[in-house]
Amino acid sequence: MSSIRVRLQCTDALGATQLFDISSGGVCGRDPGADIVLDHPTVSRRHVRFTIRGGEVEVQDLGSANGSFVNGRPLDQKPYLMADGDQLRLGHLQLRVFISPTSGVLAPMAQTMVPEANTDRATIAGGLRVEPQLLLARISQRRMLSDPPPAIEGYEIGQIIVPALGVGGDFIHWAIANDGRQAVVMGDVCGKGVAAAMYMAFISGMLFEIVPACGSPESILRRLNRSLHKVLEPGLFVTAMAVMLEPRTHSIEIACAGHPPGLLKLAGGEVIELGNDTGLALGPESTPDIGVLKRVMATGEVLMVTTDGVEEAQNPAGIELGRDRVLEVLRAASGAADAARRLQSTITEHASSARQHDDLTVVTLERCH
Questions:
Q1: Would you give the DSSP letter of residue 320?
Q2: Are 330 and 339 in contact (CB under 8 A)?
Q3: Buried b / exposed e across 311-324, counting CB within 10 Å, b at 16+?
Q4: Angle between helices 336-351 and 322-332 (to 10 degrees)
């Protein structure tokens, strides 16, 4: 039996972390049958092998497509002896290795780690499957959120979706309403992890039926609330907003339920807030107040709507990104796609190594002509 405990900390671009106990060693990769499963598009199905002998940990690249790197140095297919705190990159996925005696104190940064594995967790062919329910929920959520925004003549659209802890409660749905307008519905289920993802999946399914049957953003949110009011657990709620665009007249209509209406960059460069009528969150009340706003977009204007996780993204010191930084990003952007890219870069730089506690969803819409 190994005299050491070996942990692999997986950190995404915004600092959300998951911890894999790899003290038994084994193959690590994207294959569902691997000993340690890392569901990332740049990780090969069988990417590396970890071998633990006594107090030593070796990693060996298995001929991966995108390579393996330790502290920035590329690995060949020979075993490499690792040390506590080594930085490991598999494809574009950043990881860190923690090695400690089985009876000793945990390695630094243990406070950012997810709970330890339980004996009732599923195994496949004797291999360690870390948080299989979380992994399944994450894969399912990615599939539901994988569709890109539609192409709308005369408009440019940017979009960012990053779940915290690998899976979360943010949702977004694009569809055509019954009057022919383009609609997008986005929001946040209060909470995170598998429970939030379950309600997110329920909402996504309902929106496939609701949006095509409705003729206004307010009616979308009210019909969604009727369904949520019946099934949502006490104490939980959903913040949401629905936007409808008529590309021929360039009119937009926004309905809010516990969610701010968003920001608008005017053609002259000024950024304004689209009112403060946020309405009430969905779920707890049978007929919540819904905030409604209507406007005609001028050429060159950029609309930005986000879930609250964006402004609440924290750095290692616990300081939130804040509304002012988001305003700065939109003010400096040259268009919708540029605004989305700049905001994602700003959040990544701000968050650094901090673990994010909420999902991040952004939609930007620009009238080009």
A1: B
A2: yes
A3: bebbbeeeeebeee
A4: 140
Task: Evaluate whether 186 touches 238 at the Cβ level (below 8 Å).
Answer: no
Whether 144 contacts 204, CB under 8 Å? yes
Q: Kindly state the helix (H) or strand (E) to which residue 345 belongs, with its residue range.
A: helix 336-351
Cβ neighbours of residue 306 closer than 8 Å, sequence gap 6 or more: 262, 326, 360, 361, 362, 363
Write out the two tokens for 302: 């950029």
CB 221 within 8 A of CB 170: no
**CA-CA-CA-CA torsion sign (32, 37, 197, 307):** negative
| Cα-Cα-Cα-Cα dihedral sign, residues 110, 115, 119, 125 | negative
User: Quick one: which of 211, 213, 143, 215 has its CA closest to 173?
Assistant: 211
**Mind listing the pLDDT tens digit for each residue in 180-201?**
999 999 998 886 556 777 788 8
Tens digits of residue pLDDT in 322-353: 899 999 999 999 999 999 989 988 988 887 76
What's phi and psi for 225, nearest 5 deg?
Answer: -65, -40
Looking at the DSSP bridge assignments, the partners of residue 28 are 36, 48
Write the DSSP symbol of residue 277.
-
Specify the pTM: 0.63
The DSSP line for 185-210 is EEEEESS-HHHHHHHHHHHHHHHHHH
Pairing of strands 263-265, 271-273: antiparallel
In terms of Cα–Cα distance, which of 186, 248, 237, 247 is closest to 211? 186
pLDDT at 69 over 80: yes
Q: With cut-offs at 50, 70 and 90, classify the pLDDT of residue 125.
A: very low
